[in-house]
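A favour, since you know our structure tokens better than I do. Just paste the record in under my message, thanks.
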Amino acid sequence: MQKMLIQLDVEKIERDNKYDIKDMWKAIDEIFAKQKCVKEVNEDGSAMYLGNPNTDNYLADFGIAYITLKSSSWFLEYALKWIWYDNDEDENGSFEESDTLYRVKKKLGMI
């Protein structure tokens, strides 16, 4: 199973006033909707996107989402959390957690 947790920095988005947060979430939702992922909104405003078990290869679906998000400068600028969870080795086991935001920003020299 694959899943991704995303949280946007609402305070920074509002302070900078460059983007509408609803439009940002809509763009993110569309990326995952194309992959038929399931979205759960958390109390803190973050969103968990879950792989759809009814699709053949949701690992590829998350790969597409990853590539799309990492090439979106607005996303990298305003993401507060971007964590990729994976337990494909054992669907009943615990999830391995990867801080994708940190890894991508470090690779791009943003931190």
